[in-house]
Amino acid sequence: MDNTIKNILKEYRGFGAPKSPFPDFIRQQLKKVYEPKGMWGKIEDPTNNCITNFGVIGGKYEHIPNVDHWSIVNRFDTNSKVKKEIINIFTEQNPDQSPTDANLMNWMSSDDVIFDLFDEDGEYIEKLVNLNRETIDKGNENELFGIEVLKQNFSLTPSKVKRYCTGSVEDTKQGKDIAFEINKKWYFVQIKPYEKIKNIVDEFGDTYFEISPVYFKAERYSQKNVNFFLFVNGADYIMFQNYKQRMRSVGSTTMRFYEPPVISNVEVPVTQARTRNKDIKDTQAEFGMSDDKKTLENLLFKKAEIEKLIEKTKKKMGM
């Protein structure tokens, strides 16, 4: 194992939760392949909202040929399907070795392997690219649809909505897919697909929207960088504010939003939540408080708070 791989592995050990060195190593290998071809660099086109990080530019596998020049191979570093396929290739060629990050990187240090995996004329490149295509095509479709949704709902002219290009700093580092302007202020949107949505009311009167599956943690997006999440399913959409105190992840593929959507064309039937867990019931029983009494107290408290908010809002509106 060469010193470069040893240093990379060392860097990722001992800093909290284990983090794979695999993505950084993939980017290094892409640079080795494409820099000599003059295809490694940045796109700097601010007039089209496109200033990217370093990556593979142009070639056979542009995101949108002759339009979006950021290469699909730049996605190899974080795509789990790509890593799984690389592991399959490694296992076929090295049946006596386990596919640890160290072994994978050592194997991928070979010029022959680098060429086969990552060069545009390599043996496996087409298959790896195709593993990304479905996600990319769907993402492009959703973002274009999202622009139309924002224009229609907020009566925006084309100049008031902009889409950041693939690979842009805004996209990859800040999570911004689309920006729109209202009253001289710009707002930023992250667009995600979804399949199911529920409007749930629990036994204590708490109501929330539950969206799944979502393969991301909304809490990780800065409220400064991303103001809204727009979820899209075909022609259906629903958008929520990125407000940390009113959302949370449940499990690995579900998000809950404890507030009404900003815009939506989806009618979501209300579902009564199941009884809360045993620990909560035991705690209530310990203090001599029945479920009905606890529910009533919560509802009365919420009613009082809502009435205060209504009066406050009326004053602001001069009513």
Q: State the separation between the terminal residues, measured CA to CA.
A: 74 Å
What is the helix content?
A: 25-40%
Rg over CA atoms, rounded to whole Å, is 25 Å
What structural category do the secondary elements indicate? alpha+beta
Regarding quaternary structure, what we see is single chain
The description of the largest β-sheet is: 6 strands, mixed
Query: Number of helical segments?
Result: 9
DSSP strand count: 17
What do the pLDDT scores average to? Answer: 83
Record the strand order, biggest sheet.
7-8-9-12-13-16
What is the strand content? Answer: 15-25%
Q: SSE string, helix = H, strand = E?
A: HHEEEEEEHHHHEHEEEEEEEEEEHH
General form: globular
Uncertain segments of ≥5 residues (pLDDT<50)? Answer: 8-17, 278-289
Give a brief outline of the structure:
The chain has 319 residues and is α+β, with helices and mostly antiparallel strands. It is 39% helix and 22% strand. The chain has helices at 3-11, 22-34, 80-93, 101-108, 111-118, 125-154, 169-174, 278-286, 291-317; strands at residues 40-41, 44-45, 50-51, 55-56, 62-64, 68-71, 161-163, 178-182, 185-193, 196-201, 207-212, 228-233, 236-241, 247-250, 254-257, 263-264, 270-272.
